[in-house]
Amino acid sequence: MEWCGKLYGEWRSAENLHRMERTVLVLIVFLMLAGWVWDTGAAIPGTDGGYADRLSRRGFGMEPVSDDPGILAVMAVTGCSPVPLKGMDMSRDIAEQERLTQETAPLITPAGLTAGADTFPAEPKYPEETAPPISIPAEEHPAETVPPADAPAEEAPAETVPSSVDGVFVNEYGMICGIQDPAVVSDGYLVLPSEGCTGIAAGAFADVPVIIAEIYIPANIVHIEEGAFAGLGYLEWLEAEASESYYTEDGVLFSENGTCILGFPSARTGSYKVPDRVTRFAEGAFGEAKIEVIDAVGCSLEATGSLPSSILLLRAEDLKG
């Protein structure tokens, strides 16, 4: 038994020694491999001076990567793939690799990248969207002018109210334009004011609510419009104070130095002999007249002033016919 124990101890010592030797050998091989990698750059495939470059220089497998017996031994011990040796025919593998590279190149080539080119095509240019020009129509209507806030508002012209003079209305021009107090007409007789007025406007007595049969015109009345006595259907007499502008004769009012009949008593009937000096009748002078015949044979009439058709006008030329 003692002999067996001694033999077992020696065997164990020898086994441990062999294990230590193998460990030291692997460590030495590893250090040698690390030094070779550091020296040759074989640890970075594809880099300049690295493994791939050396394969290219050596004919891609036509000679071993290294002739170092230590490296060969390490690869044999570690079970690495056999290293291509000199004289091996790898042309078929090279051709197969080139075919696979050509077949797979379109799959791995980025879209738009030209084979053999290192640049991508320029980014396509799209036409810029151009907005149509906006046309602003000219203003068809002028803009309303707004007066400034502090500008005074335009005041409408005040309506002129005729003033009253002795019972009659007198406008701003001094013309009698109406009757303010009907009491100024006494028993059909109207006396116009001798001051505060200078004329008689057309239609001044048309709306008088009382009957006017006679009118007295003082000398201060120097302007009488045609049609001043319109609407007076009961007028029998006109009396004017003698002046340079007007005068009366037989109740008839004359103007323009006696050549124009300006007013005629509308209530008169029968016939009327026109003075030879008269050349025209004022507009509306006979508008309300009830006379039947006007004898103008001895004068040369130029205008009859819209003589009513109910009145017969006798002229010299009519008698010749």
Describe the structure.
The structure is a single chain. Helices cover 25% and strands 17% of the residues. The chain has 321 residues and is an alpha/beta fold. Strands 1-2-3-6-8 form a five-stranded mixed sheet, with no helix packed on it. Strands 4-5-7-9 form a four-stranded mixed sheet, with no helix packed on it. A four-stranded mixed sheet has the order 10-11-12-14, with no helix packed on it. The radius of gyration is 72 Å and the shape is rod-shaped. The chain starts with a helix and ends with a helix. 14% of the residues are buried. Residues 42-53, 55-63, 80-88 and 107-117 have low confidence and may be disordered.
State the order of secondary-structure elements, H for helix, E for strand.
HHHHEEEEEEEEEEEEEEEEH
- Please report the distance between the alpha carbons of the first and last residues: 200 Å
Number of E strands:
16
Range of helix content: 10-25%
Radius of gyration, whole Å: 72 Å
Shape: rod-shaped
Portion in strands = 15-25%
**Spatial order of the strands in the main sheet?**
1-2-3-6-8
Note the total helix count: 5
